């Protein structure tokens, strides 16, 4: 049972434009959400997170938005750069559980 | 470099065999997580250890087992291997249980 879903397997965006990645979840107990970035042949790297008490968290070019009522979060990358080309995973944590539930990932390609 | 190390980087073996994957967490981290990533899928949580004790279990097959040693390194043992066990296996670590997880580079297992 996939509790975290990333419905877009891929996204292509022009350099300098905004990349918007979406993630939906089903478990209302999730209270902490993270985005990880993964390059080929490397492990996932933590990018940004958000607690359920917030609806927005910003870190440089990366902003995560959380809509609890819709059980939806999104990651905005502005402006997109060629080095942002990677697979992005959304993950969620249940406070009663120590594991992270991951989405299937979205492959972002930034075109020059 | 996340500070989490995994060996070996690649492993090729035959069906029915047994392998051991090793993970060394970041210095000071007490918690180790194991994940499996099959082709084009997200990361599936397998198991978590905290300071030597099993803390949480995910979709881990009975043919798989893990342990965390007194020096906090962890091993994931996979036995009676099947073709479908071919995947990337990642280890992650955190200081305690609920912090951001930092991932190792992974072990690519190929079962022929």
Keywords:
heterodimer; A: 112 residues; mainly beta; six-stranded mixed sheet; five-stranded antiparallel sheet; globular; B: 112 residues; seven-stranded mixed sheet; four-stranded antiparallel sheet; 11 strands; 0% helix; 52% strand
Layout of SSEs?
The complex is a heterodimer of chains A (112) and B (112).
Chain A: E1 4-5, E2 10-14, E3 19-25, E4 32-38, E5 45-51, E6 56-59, E7 62-67, E8 72-77, E9 86-93, E10 100-102, E11 106-111
Parallel strand pairs in A: 2-11
Antiparallel strand pairs in A: 1-3, 3-8, 4-5, 4-9, 6-7, 7-8, 9-10, 9-11
Chain B: E1 5-7, E2 10-13, E3 19-24, E4 31-37, E5 43-50, E6 53-57, E7 64-68, E8 74-78, E9 87-94, E10 102-103, E11 107-111
Parallel strand pairs in B: 2-11
Antiparallel strand pairs in B: 1-3, 3-8, 4-5, 4-9, 5-6, 7-8, 9-10, 9-11
What fraction of the residues of chain A are assigned to beta strands by DSSP?
A: over 45%
The secondary-structure element order of chain B is EEEEEEEEEEE
Overall spatial form of chain A: globular
Rg of chain B, rounded, reads 13 Å
> For the largest interface in this structure, which chains are involved and how many residues does each contribute?
A-B, 26 and 28 residues
Question: Number of helical segments of chain B?
Answer: 0
End-to-end Cα distance of chain A: 38 Å
Largest sheet of chain B, if any? Answer: 7 strands, mixed
Query: Sheet bearing the most strands of chain A, described?
Result: 6 strands, mixed
List unreliable stretches of 5+ residues of chain B.
Answer: none
Helix content, binned percent of chain B: under 10%
Strand content of chain B: over 45%
